[in-house]
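Hi there,

I know you've been waiting on this one. I reran it after we fixed the sequence typo, so this is the corrected version. Both the input and the resulting structure follow.
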Amino acid sequence: MKLTHFVATTWSVALMSTSALAGSHLAQGRDGNVNIIYWQAVSILNPFLSGGTKDIDASNLILEPLARYDQDGNMVPWLATEIPTVENGGVSEDLTSITWNIKPGIKWSDGTDFTAADVVFTAEYCMNEDGGCKQTTSFSDVESVVADDDLTVTVTFTKPKPFHYGAFVGGTSPILQAAQFKDCVGAAAPNCTEQNFNPIGTGPFMVNEFRANDVVTMVANPNYRDPSKPAFASLTFKGGGDAASAGRAVLETGEFDYAWNLQIDPTVLADMAEAGNGTVVSSFGTAVERMMVNMTNPSADLGDKRSTLEGGPHPFLSDPAVRRALSIAIDRNLLAEVGYGAAGTATCNVVPAPTIYASTANDECLVQNIELANQVLDDAGWARGADGIREKDGVRLSILYQTSTNAVRQDTQALVKQWWTEIGVETELKNIDAAVFFGGDQSSPDTFQKFFADIEMYTNLFDGTDPEAYMNSWTCAEIPSPENNWLGSNMPRYCNADYDALATELSETAAIEDRARIVMKMNDMLMAEGAMIPLVHRGRVSAHANSLNGVILNTWDSEMWNAADWTRGE
């Protein structure tokens, strides 16, 4: 791997965009304060060290990528002047490199110039093998990142790369300031508290005060590239509580302007909206509420080898019959109806969209079949004991099933426990505060990355419309472990050479029809082997005050993607 910084004369160009010129008569900060509530509190403002959506979204108010996806899934330039393609010369004809041109005049919030050296540094930061970067899949097959001059950076791949837009695209892959993070590379990354809590960015806001797992206050970035934005002088990003209280704070009391991820009983949400203070917005993208199945042994007796490949396979979830029975015993249609209403539909896939990637090979799970689940376990030799719980060779089917604290998730847990009891599986339910569960605290045993349980449930999704980086999440190299600070993305600890080979094939395939075929094959492999149990294809549901204008819900990127355009008005 080669990462080269280019040192050149600092540019002093101060260009203003056309949109900025058109609106320059408007003053930044003219609309006062905006209040945002995420019931999962922010624990860090560095998306390279956390996979939690709440951390990524809060970070996106400060840190920005070279390009984003808009509300329709189209890639749009952000800090770059255009999207590089073969046609415009930005992508080499042999598909082995991509060159990004940076918009001139962009400043960091501290007033220094944003340059290609910062882009190069960000690659160095995430690609360092000792850093435990959460977004390494975005840098798959990257050989070098070189600054050709202050405003040009070229990414070279180890082989022809049909999809070139992993690194620096979307809310999970923003640019860090090299000057601020220079001493935070590798093993030092998680320990850079000041940098991780107070990143310097190019976005519309900058940190005023950060209180982990509670509240972040921000102020408008005085060096933002459009002097008329953001319209808000300050922003409060409050965390904690639950989805219902967040919804009430916007829709009923008007205390907050924006509430995220309203995973609430749909009838309750409708009742809240009748107060007339706010609007519920929803849109379907790629989000799937799923159960991750621990393929390794989570026993505390294993010490540091707990929930790692070194600790050995799971004592009963390693049996494909058990994994299949657990899945077909679930009534997904009921879970979708009760928990999500029109904003949810049953799914048997981890990639439910776009349509070209959606498989129909796993539709067995769409119909609950308790009788078949029992037969599958009987045939596999799992016999019921005197208390009705199944056992085999001294191993008891007793599951610790964990998720974040949320009323809908706890209702889901209760229903699933009932169904699993009917097939002779004992289930202990555990819910963990979302700020802890999705947080990056290396000392906590309760993060979803450590996965010290048998089953864990949450929602995940991918940026944009191409799932290549997402599918790489379940390659062997992405397994969390003490060696990578538990920051890999392969929560089930699934490791299959055939799957890894498909990931390689996908990275070398250009035709969209062929890419779709490979993605479906990878999806079907994960489903057939029971590495996870998809439940509900979730529409993203949020709410905003009627006085908050400019909100465009985006299911393909960060929900905060266009916060610079928000304004206050009746």
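Quick highlight: Residues 1-24 have pLDDT under 50 and may be disordered.

Best,
R. S.
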